[in-house]
């Protein structure tokens, strides 16, 4: 019995040793601004992983270490896929991927964002399907929170990119069903809400009828599209939301047009980085993976173990690395 007790005590203290405090402590949202534990306005700058169900090997300590120490990032986004062999069909694998990233982030002293990565698969047209999807999300976040509730490293993203035909009223119904479950387990965790039309940003219908609650933010996904009017509209949505005290988190952005194939667009990307920093927005780059697409930071023939090798950097990876190393993201211990 004494041996068992000593093992328990050793394990408890080992967990404490392995856990590293994130740069700004426990986060909150004050008047639309992400805020650190001492009340200062803060920004998270980091990287999103690719869909968990297809490039699971990137849900690894090596990938998280690369985000912290190679890209100077203070947040990793775990894009836990829902459909197509994702959580809805293979929940154990999805939870395993999420916890691998969360544990690595905690060990490295950076933030982790657990994203229920639905890409317009649930259309909100069938009450039965809507209820099934909502209940699955509740079960998913309960599982995550039962393990990580109270963690200063954690943020949640309740729905990645809602289907364009899903009306705002159904999205709000979804959030009003999922949020109480989250708040019961962790009253203060910063929670990010996907926006209409595949999270193009907090439109007027969102701003004029927001979800009620504390420590909430709204998603905006940005890509350097050729339609400059669209980019200006997104910038204005941010300004409109902030004027109403609503927070915006760019949980996903890309440095090329979303309609592939497309070339890298460094000038447009630099302009939007400047805009995000001027408005103290937090953001995560899509994506740390070797997927053969322009947004990927790593070349297709490289593995997570090679993610910090110069010869494995894509053009997108070089652009991000050179930008991120100029930022003060509170990173230590590399």
Automatic annotation (TrEMBL):
MF (Gene Ontology) = cellulase activity
UniProt cross-references to Gene3D superfamilies, sorted A to Z: Glycosidases
At the top of the EC hierarchy, this enzyme's class is hydrolase
What Enzyme Commission number does this protein have?
3.2.1.4
**Glycoside hydrolase family domain span:** 37-291
The stretch of residues making up the signal peptide is 1-19
Q: Spell out the protein name for this chain.
A: Beta-1,4-endoglucanase
What is the organism field in this record?
Answer: Meloidogyne incognita
Q: What is the lineage of its organism?
A: Eukaryota, Metazoa, Ecdysozoa, Nematoda, Chromadorea
């Amino acid at each position: 019995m004494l041996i068992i007790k000593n093992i328990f005590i050793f394990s408890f203290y080992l967990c404490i040793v392995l856990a590293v405090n994130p740069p700004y402590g426990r986060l909150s949202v004050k008047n639309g601004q992400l805020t650190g534990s001492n009340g200062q306005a803060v920004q998270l700058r980091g990287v999103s992983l690719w869909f968990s169900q297809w490039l699971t090997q990137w849900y690894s300590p090596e990938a998280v270490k690369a985000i912290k120490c190679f890209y100077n990032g203070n947040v990793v986004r775990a894009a836990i896929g829902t459909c197509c062999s994702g959580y809805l069909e293979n929940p154990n694998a999805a939870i395993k991927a999420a916890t691998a990233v969360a544990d690595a982030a905690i060990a490295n002293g950076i933030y982790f964002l657990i994203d229920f990565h639905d890409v317009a698969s649930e259309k909100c047209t069938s009450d039965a399907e809507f209820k099934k999807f909502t209940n699955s999300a509740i079960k998913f976040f309960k599982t995550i929170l039962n393990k990580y509730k109270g963690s200063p490293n954690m943020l949640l993203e309740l729905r990645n990119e809602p289907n364009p035909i899903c009306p705002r009223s159904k999205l709000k119904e979804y959030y009003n069903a999922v949020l109480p479950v989250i708040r019961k387990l962790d009253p203060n965790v910063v929670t990010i809400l996907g926006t209409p039309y595949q999270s193009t940003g907090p439109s007027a219908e969102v701003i004029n009828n927001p979800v009620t609650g504390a420590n909430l933010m709204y998603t905006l996904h940005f890509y350097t599209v050729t339609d400059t009017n669209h980019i200006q509209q997104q910038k204005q949505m941010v300004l409109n939301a902030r004027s109403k005290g609503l927070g915006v988190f760019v949980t996903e952005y890309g440095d090329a047009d979303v309609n592939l194939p497309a070339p890298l667009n460094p000038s447009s990307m630099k302009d939007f980085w400047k805009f995000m920093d001027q408005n103290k927005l937090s953001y995560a780059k899509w994506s740390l993976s070797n997927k053969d697409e322009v947004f990927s930071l790593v070349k297709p023939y490289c593995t997570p173990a090679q993610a910090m090798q110069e010869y494995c950097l894509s053009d997108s990876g070089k652009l991000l690395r050179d930008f991120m190393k100029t930022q003060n993201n509170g990173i230590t211990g590399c």
